[in-house]
Amino acid sequence: MRERRGGGKRAHTRAHAHTRARARARAQDAEFPADSRSLWGGATNKAGLPDAKVWLRPSQLPAVKEAGERAALFKPRAEIDGVVKGSTALRNDWLLSACNIVAGQKEAIDRVFLFPKNPATRPPAEGARDRGLYVVAFFEDDPHSDDDWKLVLVDDRIPCDGDGRPLFARCVSAHVFWVQIVEKAFAKLSGGYAHMAGGTVLQGLELLTGGTPKKLDLRDADTLETLTEGASRAPGVDLADEATRAALLREHGALWHELLSALKASPPQVVGCVFRAKPKPGKLAAAADDGARLVRAGLEPETVYCVTGGINYDGTRLMRLRQLHGATGEWNGRWSDGSALWTPNMRQMLNYSDDASDGVFWMEYDDFVAHFNKLFFCRMAGDLYTTMTVRSRWHGATAGGGPRHVSFRTNGQWLLDISKRTTVTVTLAVEDPRRREGSGGKDALGVKIGWSIFRGNARPADRRRRRLHGGPAELVAAAEPRLARKVVRTLQLEPSAIPYVLVPHTDEPAREAAFRLVLTADDREDDGLPDLRVEPVRAATDWKTTTLRASWGGASAAAAGPPGSGAQYWANPQYELLVEKQSRVFIFLEPDRAPNAVRHATRPVSYTHLTLPTKR
Fold it and tell me: pTM here?
């Protein structure tokens, strides 16, 4: 287990030392050559990717020459250019959507590039940019390593068609090329452009920032209950109806407050939004109508937008958004570009631009909640929180499965000491199989994972593992097992004299895998002292365990019987318990050495606990 506060300085130092040596030697990356091997990962064109006729540096692109601008990684101003989608054959919309969201905050996207340092505001060291070399930092959970930052060096040769147009993603301004470098660096990390499929927007946000991402589904009943102070649970409320949901969110200010708090945090969070059409059985027509409603408003379903700002201006709640370019239109409702609602004073105060080609637009908050139903937030890494990281694995007896299995008690368990009310984000992650040799980007999800937090045992057993998971009163919080590479949940824990018990687990027993458990807590006083302590249940303080194996077989099977069966009952195997002092005892009876398929489906035969008085 290790504690990390803030982060990135060691990665910065290593990146600069690494690239200074290599930059002097060459301007071409031989590890990721400008040919089909980098497109397809050495395989044939099975992904249907267009073939690159030529690889050009940004200054060689015809569009840059026509614009009369000097090629630049970023524009020399605070705002970052948006992202234009390229070939759909890549299936990397998840990465480009995350790029568009992260680029909503200049500081956040700057940190993705470790070399040259601050390329938009100062000349790169020793002319490295002129040699076309860049180092991009990606954050990836690695249960086998203490360093989760992957530093990727690439040159700036961009795959293009026969007319010199970039095949894949590009920036809105032809002379700006930061997104081409990010896309190329991740293609190299993935083993080729063809192997970037299979991610999610949340994974992309973490990949680019190392921060803590979360998703807010505005259709989820529990989420709506929180955001509407329980009003969504009132009788007769149809949460499947988009108009009803939007009306509830307009009337209650919790979501508006969360959005503004995220955008004004220090450092600011990055925020995105999307309308996901997820029809329920029998409501396909309603989902299609909702999608058509967005299109009529100039928006595009299933396309992720970046939220770049929000303000309450004289009682009008306004949101500023930027679309992922490649969408077919732009918002045409209230406060859109060219709307008569804009006054000269508001144009000046809000730095308003009616450029329909920039992909940036304003909309009222009431329309925002009516047209988007899923939000993405990513809290940046900073110095105002403490991160505790545990690296372990489910293996052998410690692969106990979920709470519905009696073997759940054998999972590794960790004690959480909380001395004051603390907001904690718990993240459980397993290895991304796309990084596993030979995976080819497939089988990205392989095991259902989850975690549970219980109230600890009463003293004097408070430093021991939970043997019985108890009822709802004992369960403090849980992330239900699901087929995902990562499960994340944020919760508030009240101070407790008895440690909480955290149990990461798979859904089924005997599913072995390495995992990474991360707890991120606010440092409320910013005093540098952790607001929580994490330690494993140690063998020296744990319960003493004895295992006895027997069987009902042969003559004993014929003779044995249940209680009340007389002599047959007494033919069962019997054991003596010799107790030297009053002891708390747990007794578990479960199948042993059954075939895996049987063991996984078998419920515990019996378990109980009791306190035995001294008897010699």
Answer: 0.74
